[in-house]
Amino acid sequence: MNTMHHHITKLKPNCLVYMQHLQNIKRSIFAFLLCIPTSLLALILFLLLIYNGFTVFYFHLPFPSNPLPEPANFSQGNLAKNSFKKLPASVMYAVKEDTPPVILKTLLPLLQNPAITMIPINHSVVFKPNKTHGYEAVKRMLRSADNLKRFSTRVREFFGNHGCKVRFFMTWISSLKSFGDRECFSVESLFRSHPDACLVIVSNSMDSESGSLVLKPFLDKRFKLIAIKPDFDYLFKDTHAEKWFKGLKKGNVSPGEVSLGQNMSNLLRLALLYKFGGIYMDTDVIVLKRFTKLRNVIGAQTIDLETRNWSRLNNAVLIFDKKHPLLFKFIEEFALTFDGNKWGHNGPYLVSRVVSRVNGRPGFNFTVLPPPAFYPVDWSRIRSFFRGPRDKVHSTWLHEKLEQIKSESFAVHLWNKQSREIKVESGSIINYIMLDCCVFCNSSSSSL
């Protein structure tokens, strides 16, 4: 015991010496740090922060592998030097659907002759409404279609009594109040180029006493036109639209978020031409020259400037024989793939899909006309057609463009949604076109 006590007593001085040595080292370190200039210390800390930040963010910041593509340029000036040629129906493309754009979008890569699988939709399980607002709108639209079995009789009597060799159809699903100066001028241009034509406007609102007042100026000039309420059951009978329409009336088909009137117009135009044959045109189309030499024709809205093949078709102007097989396919596609939530899915994109699929099949005889035929200006550039000359250079461009349109175009689509509020300026392309195509030429062009 005495020996152990002796060793512990001997270690105490050694420990005290070691602790004293550590304290001296600590004092030396602090003294050294205090000797470093403040600016140098700040620099060291800053470098440490940079290094730390680099190691953290280097692995997490995303970098695009490829630069974004530039918007496609569809300037009509690029088309001016090309002569007017029909696009063969054997060369076709399908396009990807998108929502209605507000700025020029980049054209997506084209797929030639895609293998499209069409899966029929079981309408009985698609939609079960609970008296929603959308379904109430459906019932209001279809209510007036009851007891209209005289539709076919009225149309046939109208064509027969007037000996109509040139038959035009328009549809108007909106209210009578919205049938304004622009729609009336579309009718004017039609009869200016086709004074011998017969026009049937399929519309609930126009087939009324008030509607007759709107059409009276044309009737007073002995133009042949009539407004008739549609008989959907008759028009859709013996087509794929018949079952689709029954499902819609029963509430088994969702009308979707897109205007039902727009989609009904897309289907009506197909059914009208399939039942009767003739020419369909939208009410925002200005006719420039006679269509009588055109047969079984659909127009391209855009083309690939490198390949000169169409990239999208449009259904604002359709010219087809009665019971043409392509119309039957259009109606079939509408019924089997209807989607009321996608803009254009049942219209321009529909005709583009179908035409791309029937490529090379026997029995389909039709022609795809290039954009200048009916769509000489893209929707994104329609404003330029309403502007008057700004300077000498602009004035020269306007006159050259106008001459090109007169030479190559049968009609001009005004892209109503984009141009409805634009005023027609004096000296603009539309101003000159209106002066050439008017029937009642004392009206103000700015009201279009």
TrEMBL record:
The keyword Membrane applies. The chain crosses the membrane at residues 29-51. This is Alpha 1,4-glycosyltransferase domain-containing protein. Keywords: Membrane, Transmembrane, Transmembrane helix. Residues 320-443 form the Alpha 1,4-glycosyltransferase domain. The keyword Transmembrane helix applies. It holds the Pfam family Gb3_synth. It comes from Populus trichocarpa (Western balsam poplar).
